[in-house]
C-alpha cells in the first residue's frame, strides 16, 4: 500500500534560475531587497536580489568565454560566502552542472571527486589553493581551468571589506585586491571583466527538457562506501522548492510571517541541505539570509539575538549543543519561530530540552526527512498541524509518495506502528547516480507502470497508514545490530544515553566478539563529570531490555566523529571497535 501526499500541484518545466528570478531581464518583485548579508558587516557588505541575478549572469558569460560547454561540470571547493550562490546559479545559467566539495577535503579526496565528476573547471577558496592545485595536478586539470576565491568582500570578517560585495557585482572591471595570478590560477573575478553591460541584456537558454537536464551533481556522504555523484535535474530542484513554498503558504498568517522572516546560514552550501534552502528556496520566498563563513556556535547565538533571526535550519549536533551548552540560556532567542532539523535522526529528549528554552511552548523542533537522492526533502510538517511528538519527521512531501517494505523488499508493511524500510518516489527523485548504473539499479525499484522508487535504507514506521500519517525514522538498515537474533537500533540506544546527565554525546556500533555481535558505545562525557565507563554501562542496564545492554563495552572519547551534515561516521567507530575488541583484535585487547 502506498501513502500519497495530501497535496499535488503541477511543477513547471523550467530551469532553477527561472523559478527563482522569474526571468533573465524582466523586473524583479523587490530588486533592492537584500538577499545575502555578511553578519560581520551587515550595513556595507551584502547582495540585493538584483545584484544576485546580475552577478550570476556575469559569471555565466565569463564561464562561456572561458570555454564552458553545455553539460560541463564545475566543482566548487570552498566554504560559505556571499558569492557562493551567484557562482552556483552562474554555472547553471551557462548550461553547466555544479558539484560542491567539502572544503575540509585533503588532496586525495578532492582528486577523487574531480576525476569521478570529470570536472572541467575548479573554483577554490584561497586558503585551500595548495590542496586544490595538488588534486588538479593528479587528475590533469590545467591551471587555466582553476579559479581562486579570496580578497573580495565575500563575508566572514577575515578578508572581508577589501572591496564590498556590491562593488564587485557593479564594477565593470572588479578589483578585489588580488593582483595577478595565484601560482598561475586566475582570480574568479576575471570572469566578470568588461561584461557588465552585456550581462544586463543577456538571457540564459532554458533547458529543452528540465526533467532530463542535470543542474547539480551533489555527492552522497559515502558513510557506507565511496561517495557517489547524485544527478539532480532542474525539474527536481524546482519541485523540491515548490514543496517548501507550498508548506510555507499553509501557515495561516503566511504573508505577514514572510515580512518578518530572517534566515541564518551556517550549513555548508556545498551540501544539498544548505544549498536548497539558502541558494534557492529562501530567495524565492523573499527571505533575507545572513551567511556565516562557517559554523561557530556562540556567533550563531549572537546573530540570532542581534538580527532577530526567525528561521533556523540546523543539523542534530547543533540542536544537541543548544540543549547542553551552558551559555545558550544567556542569549535572547525569542525571535525564533521555526527550528527545522534534518540530515540525521534527533531524539525526542534532546528536542524537548531545547523546546524548554521557549517558555511560551510555541516553538517546536520540526524534524524533516530527506536524502541527497531526493534533492533534499521527502517528509515535512504542515504548520497547521499540532506537534504531539518532536520525534516524528512529518508527513509525505507535496507531490510525493511513500511506502514501507520488508527488509527483503518483497512484502509491503501496512500496519500502523510496524517497522519497515522506507521507499519514496516523486518529482524530486534523482535522475541516477553519476556513471554508476549498477549502484543506481541496486538503489531503485521499478513498478510495472514504470514508477521508480528509491529504497532509502532507513527503517521507519508511520503512526497512521493514510495520507497525513506522521512518519518516524528509527535507524539505517545497514546500521542495525543483530544480538541473538534481535534487531537493536543504535539510534535508540544513543537517544537513551543522551538522557544520562553525565553524557554530552554518544554513538553506538556493533562489534563481533567471540562470534557474537554486541552493542558498543563511544561516549563524550560532560565536563566536570566523574562518571566512569562502568557507571554508564550499569546505568544503561536499568533502561533497556537485556539484549540491548552495552555488552560490547563503553569507551570515553573526546568527540563523536561526524560528517558536516551531522551523520555519525559509524564506519570509523566500527573499525576502531574491531581493532580494540573484535574477533580480529589481539587477544589481550579483547573484553574480559
From TrEMBL:
Coiled coil: none annotated. One of its GO terms (molecular function) is CoA-ligase activity. Residues 573-592 are annotated as: Disordered. Residues 492-567 form the AMP-binding enzyme C-terminal domain. Signal peptide: none annotated. Gene3D superfamilies: 3.30.300.30, N-terminal domain of ligase-like. Pfam families: AMP-binding, AMP-binding_C. Residues 31-434 form the AMP-dependent synthetase/ligase domain. Belongs to the ATP-dependent AMP-binding enzyme family. This is Acetyl-CoA synthetase-like protein. It comes from Trichocladium antarcticum. The lineage of its organism: Eukaryota, Fungi, Dikarya, Ascomycota, Pezizomycotina.
Amino acid at each position: 500500500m502506498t501513502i500519497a501526499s495530501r497535496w499535488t500541484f503541477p511543477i513547471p518545466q523550467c530551469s532553477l534560475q527561472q523559478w527563482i528570478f522569474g526571468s533573465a531581464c524582466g523586473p524583479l518583485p523587490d530588486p533592492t531587497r537584500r538577499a545575502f548579508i555578511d553578519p560581520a558587516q551587515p550595513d556595507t557588505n551584502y547582495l540585493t536580489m538584483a545584484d544576485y541575478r546580475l552577478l550570476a549572469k556575469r559569471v555565466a558569460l565569463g564561464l562561456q568565454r572561458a570555454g564552458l560547454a553545455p553539460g560541463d561540470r564545475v566543482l566548487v571547493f570552498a566554504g560559505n560566502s556571499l558569492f557562493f550562490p551567484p557562482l552556483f546559479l552562474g554555472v547553471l545559467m551557462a548550461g553547466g552542472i555544479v558539484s560542491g566539495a567539502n572544503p575540509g577535503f585533503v588532496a586525495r579526496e578532492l582528486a577523487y571527486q574531480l576525476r569521478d565528476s570529470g570536472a572541467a573547471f575548479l573554483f577554490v577558496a584561497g586558503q585551500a589553493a595548495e590542496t586544490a592545485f595538488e588534486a588538479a595536478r593528479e587528475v590533469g586539470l590545467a591551471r587555466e581551468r582553476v579559479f581562486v576565491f579570496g580578497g573580495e568582500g565575500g563575508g566572514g570578517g577575515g578578508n572581508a571589506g577589501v572591496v564590498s560585495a556590491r562593488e564587485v557585482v557593479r564594477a565593470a572591471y572588479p578589483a578585489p585586491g588580488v593582483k595577478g595570478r595565484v601560482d598561475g590560477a586566475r582570480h574568479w573575478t576575471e570572469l566578470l571583466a568588461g561584461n557588465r553591460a552585456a550581462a544586463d541584456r543577456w538571457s540564459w537558454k532554458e533547458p529543452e527538457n528540465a526533467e532530463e537536464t542535470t543542474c547539480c551533481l551533489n555527492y552522497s556522504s559515502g558513510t557506507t562506501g565511496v561517495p557517489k555523484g547524485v544527478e539532480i535535474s532542474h525539474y527536481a530542484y524546482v519541485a523540491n522548492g515548490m514543496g517548501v513554498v507550498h508548506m510555507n503558504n499553509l501557515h495561516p498568517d503566511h504573508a505577514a510571517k514572510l515580512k518578518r522572516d530572517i534566515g541564518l546560514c551556517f550549513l555548508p552550501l556545498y551540501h544539498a541541505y544548505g544549498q536548497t534552502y539558502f541558494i534557492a528556496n529562501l530567495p524565492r520566498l523573499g527571505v533575507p539570509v545572513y551567511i556565516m563563513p562557517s559554523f561557530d556556535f556562540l556567533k550563531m547565538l549572537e546573530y540570532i539575538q542581534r538580527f532577530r533571526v526567525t528561521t533556523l535550519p540546523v543539523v542534530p549536533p547543533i540542536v544537541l549543543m543548544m540543549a547542553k551548552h551552558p551559555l545558550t540560556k544567556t542569549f535572547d532567542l525569542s525571535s525564533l519561530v521555526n527550528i527545522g532539523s534534518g540530515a540525521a535522526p534527533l531524539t525526542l529528549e534532546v528536542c524537548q530540552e531545547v523546546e524548554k528554552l521557549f517558555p511560551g511552548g510555541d516553538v517546536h523542533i520540526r524534524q524533516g526527512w530527506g536524502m541527497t537522492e531526493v534533492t533534499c526533502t521527502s517528509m515535512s510538517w504542515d504548520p497547521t498541524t499540532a506537534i504531539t511528538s518532536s520525534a516524528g519527521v512529518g508527513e509525505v512531501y507535496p507531490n510525493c509518495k511513500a511506502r514501507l517494505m520488508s527488509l527483503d523488499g518483497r512484502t509491503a508493511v501496512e500496519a500502523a506502528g510496524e517497522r519497515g524500510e522506507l521507499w519514496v518516489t516523486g518529482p524530486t527523485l534523482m535522475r541516477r547516480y553519476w556513471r554508476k548504473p549498477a549502484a543506481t539499479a541496486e538503489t531503485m525499484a521499478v513498478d510495472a507502470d514504470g514508477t521508480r522508487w528509491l529504497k532509502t535504507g532507513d527503517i521507519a514506521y508511520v503512526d497512521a497508514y493514510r495520507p497525513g500519517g506522521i512518519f518516524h525514522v528509527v535507524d539505517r538498515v545497514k546500521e542495525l545490530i543483530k544480538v541473538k537474533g534481535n534487531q537493536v537500533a543504535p539510534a535508540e540506544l544513543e537517544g537513551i544515553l543522551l538522557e544520562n546527565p553525565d553524557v554530552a554525546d554518544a554513538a553506538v556500533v556493533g562489534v563481533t566478539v567471540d562470534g557474537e555481535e554486541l552493542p558498543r558505545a563511544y561516549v563524550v562525557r560532560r565536563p566536570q563529570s566523574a562518571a566512569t565507563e562502568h557507571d554508564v554501562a550499569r546505568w544503561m542496564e536499568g533502561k533497556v531490555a537485556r539484549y540491548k545492554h552495552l555488552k560490547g563495552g563503553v569507551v570515553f572519547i573526546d568527540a563523536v566523529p561526524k560528517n558536516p551534515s551531522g551523520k555519525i561516521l559509524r564506519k570509523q567507530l566500527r573499525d576502531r571497535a574491531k581493532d580494540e575488541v573484535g574477533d580480529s583484535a589481539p587477544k589481550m585487547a579483547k573484553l574480559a
